[in-house]
Amino acid sequence: MIYYDKVTMTYNGGYPAIEDITLGIDPGEFVSIVGHSGAGKTTLLKMLFAELFPTAGSVYFGSREIASLSQKELLEMRRNIGTVFQDFRLLPTKTVYENIAFAMEVAGKDDDEIRADVPHVLELVGLPDKMWSFPRELSGGEQQRVAIARAIVNQPDVLIADEPTGNLDPINTLDVVEILKRINDLGTTVLLTTHNKGVVDSVGRRVVTLDQGRIIRDDKQGKYVL
Amino acid sequence: MTMWVTTKRIARYGLIGFLRNGFVSLSAILIMTTTLFVIAGLLVASAALSETLRQLTNKVDVNVYFATDADEEQVLAMQRSLESLPEVALVSYTSREQALSDFRERHKNDQLTLQALEQLDENPLGASLAIRAKETSQYESIAAFLDAQHQAPGGEIITKVNFHQNKAAIDRLTAIIDTSRTAGFAIAGFLILASILIAFNTIRLAIYTSRDEIGVMNLVGASRWYVRGPFVIAGILYGVVSGLVVLIVMYPIALWLGPASERFFGTFNVLTYYTTQFPLLFLVIMGTGILLGALSSLLAVRRYLRA
């Protein structure tokens, strides 16, 4: 369902951030992408939600090449990809409820659906009583769980988690990994980047290892090896 | 999802953003209030200036004095031919008798002059015509016409045209009027431009603080108007609130300055201007505020809206 075809991406004039990458991901997979800082993990993900475009090669989502999508199709595609980041990226002037509702509104859900689904998804990430708090009133772990709730509330086909545990303590890290696994069990494809060995080993699924912009390992039942 | 639901949601987020970003909204409103005050002040000042200029212009005229033995019919004929000139706005006739009684009235506290007048057998004053031009610059050609009449046969009934005495004053007044108009427009233009740029920049900074938020909205897949709309609404709200503040605060100021302005300008009263021209003021102030707020927001948010 996701396919990188001989993709190279070079930032303005410098060394290629990723070079000649071919990678296929099937529906329902849980793929951990590991590597040192600067190995190209984030660049690889950014091309999936069209924040970056490859300088050579193509990226496919479903049967469509992302670079060929119209503005409208691009928005629709983004609504079909949930994203979670190291720095949470919540809307600071909106409450937890509104943050999640915003993603639903953007996807065209009506008010009744929103009122029903938001408490439900907060339950799923274990934050049912923080609905009316603002992001600044929450701990890092709680904020990340809100971000995950927002990412999955529209039941996307793919969840992208870019270093989601980078700012969290070990307990919260474990919680977040558990939530990601649960989401994957419900059928969502999960792409996780991390350089946390513990996280990768506790997931125990497919591991793709990047080094200096190239894939150096791709293990079906991988461990963190670098 | 209907247009109506989308519009409602955008409007609600605009209002929420306006209220929750209290400090940012406050500073944007303060700057915009200042801008609108400058514009309102210029409106009033230009009205006062044109009213004063109109009065001054009205005070300028050319007087033609006739000999005491001039036939009244000849004078009235002259009046008719003057009135037919395109430059002439008004010609008023003062008869010999009227001139005498005006003279008496003017000198009623001056017994010596009045006694001297009594010594004369007959009225020493001639009839006169006071000519007012449509524009101060047109007195030159009217005076030329009168000079020609003076030279022509039968022109001896004219004893004096006071244009040449007034010419220096009229020329200076014309120059002052022209210069103050040009300078007034230039200063007004400069002030308005400067305050608009400051207001624009403040709103841009306000939105700059939200650039991460805009990035997140893009990422979630929000459409262009779903992101821009609330900022534009907030910008319009800055304009509405600032406009109302200016219009409300102007009233006590006009009340306070009213009598003083009338003493200073003659007939122009700030309070009368405020009450009679309120619809115009309302339209200009609110219109500028709303337009400025909406446009600044739109331009600023466009910068941070990729994709």
From TrEMBL, chain A:
Please report the record's description of how this protein sits within the membrane: Peripheral membrane protein
Gene Ontology terms: biological process: cell division
Keyword annotations of the record: ATP-binding, Cell cycle, Cell division, Cell membrane, Membrane, Nucleotide-binding
Write down the Pfam families for this protein, in alphabetical order: ABC_tran (PF00005)
Tell whether Hydrolase is among the UniProt keywords: no
Report one GO cellular component.
plasma membrane
Location in the cell: Cell membrane
Q: Tell me the InterPro entries matching this sequence.
A: AAA+_ATPase (IPR003593), ABC_transporter-like_ATP-bd (IPR003439), ABC_transporter-like_CS (IPR017871), ABC_transpr_LolD-like (IPR015854), Cell_div_FtsE (IPR005286), P-loop_NTPase (IPR027417)
Leader peptide range in chain numbering: none
A GO term, aspect molecular function: ATP hydrolysis activity
Outline the extent of the ABC transporter domain: 2-226
Query: Could you confirm whether the keyword Amino-acid biosynthesis appears in this record?
Result: no
Q: How does it assemble?
A: Homodimer. Forms a membrane-associated complex with FtsX.
Which NCBIfam families does this UniProt record tie to the protein? Answer: FtsE
Q: Which PANTHER family match?
A: CELL DIVISION ATP-BINDING PROTEIN FTSE, IMPORT ATP-BINDING PROTEIN
Regarding protein family, the annotation reads:
Belongs to the ABC transporter superfamily.
Say what the protein does: Part of the ABC transporter FtsEX involved in cellular division.
Protein name per UniProt: Cell division ATP-binding protein FtsE
UniProtKB/TrEMBL annotation, chain B:
Q: What top-level branch of life does the organism fall under? A: Bacteria
Q: What taxonomic classification does the UniProt entry list for its organism?
A: Bacteria, Candidatus Kaiseribacteriota
Output the PANTHER family linked to this UniProt entry: CELL DIVISION PROTEIN FTSX
Q: Which residues form a coiled coil?
A: none
According to the UniProt record, one GO cellular component term is:
plasma membrane
Protein's membrane topology:
Multi-pass membrane protein
Residue ranges of the TM segments: 21-49, 183-207, 231-258, 278-301
Q: What is the protein name given in its UniProt record?
A: Cell division protein FtsX
**Where in the cell?**
Cell membrane
Question: Keywords assigned by UniProt?
Answer: Cell cycle, Cell division, Cell membrane, Membrane, Transmembrane, Transmembrane helix
What organism is the protein native to? Answer: Candidatus Kaiserbacteria bacterium CG10_big_fil_rev_8_21_14_0_10_59_10
